[in-house]
Design a protein that fits this description.
By secondary structure, the protein is α+β, with helices and mostly antiparallel strands. Strands 7-8-3-11 form a 4-stranded mixed sheet, with no helix packed on it. The chain is globular. About 25% of the residues have low confidence.
């Protein structure tokens, strides 16, 4: 079983895509099961007693443009989750789309106090696979939850996993190409006017910027996990 995960733009909204691929291996028919839900975080508290591992503090607005920023909402035990069609909603806003026909449990642990690690909206897939057979299950997580009544929800549910994947690959390659071309064009001038030492120094300052640009394109990818962490 494998689970490619990446982020793409759908109808103006950033969406994290996760495709679970189950393959029949060996001899005979085998059963495959997979389930995913949402929770605020699965990370333990850090030493400061506020932030958690594997989770960026949010929401965070930069005091100066370019500093740390993170969309989202602070955890609340009062949030109300529900299955609305093939989506999981939190206070009426879609945080996850699930495969049609999947088995569902709104809260697998039953009841009790709600904590940041409490899982909601667990959707499971159960298939029987013959040798060599392949089954897939797609989950989509809007980076910023949107109202269940928003027309974009239907577009996100229908979005092809392969479409954003190809767009993402082209975007990363394009960012790298533009970064290289930009560095070359700016390096050529100083090389003619000021000589090689100045040109080398200028390249040393610019190259990290190019790598950061490509990293931002790739940085949309989310951790591979059975529990997504909506904003």
């Amino acid at each position: 079983m494998s689970s490619p995960v990446f982020c793409g733009m759908v109808d103006g909204h950033a969406v994290a895509f996760a495709r679970v691929v189950m393959r029949g291996e060996g001899q005979g028919v085998h059963e495959a099961r997979f389930a995913a839900g949402v929770r605020d975080t699965g990370g333990a508290l850090k030493a400061d007693g506020v932030t958690r591992r594997f989770r960026f503090p949010r929401p965070a607005a930069p005091s100066t443009p370019g500093l740390y920023t993170q969309p989202g909402a602070a955890f609340s035990p009062e949030w109300r989750y529900a299955f609305t069609g093939d989506t999981v909603t939190r206070d009426g806003n879609v945080v996850l789309t699930v495969p049609p026909g999947s088995a569902r449990q709104l809260r697998p642990d039953g009841n009790g106090p709600v904590t940041p690690s409490t899982v909601f909206g667990l959707a499971g897939v159960h298939v029987r696979l013959a040798p060599g057979a392949i089954a897939t299950a797609d989950f989509r997580l809007p980076v910023e939850p949107l109202p269940a009544t928003d027309p974009a929800v239907a577009t996100i549910q229908a979005a092809s996993f392969d479409g954003p994947s190809a767009e993402r690959d082209r975007g990363v390659a394009g960012a790298r190409g533009r970064g290289d071309d930009d560095r070359r064009s700016r390096d050529e001038g100083p090389q003619r006017l000021h000589g090689e030492p100045r040109q080398r120094a200028r390249r040393a300052r610019q190259e990290p910027r190019g790598r950061v640009g490509a990293g931002r394109q790739q940085g949309c990818a989310t951790r591979r996990s059975g529990c997504a962490t909506p904003r």
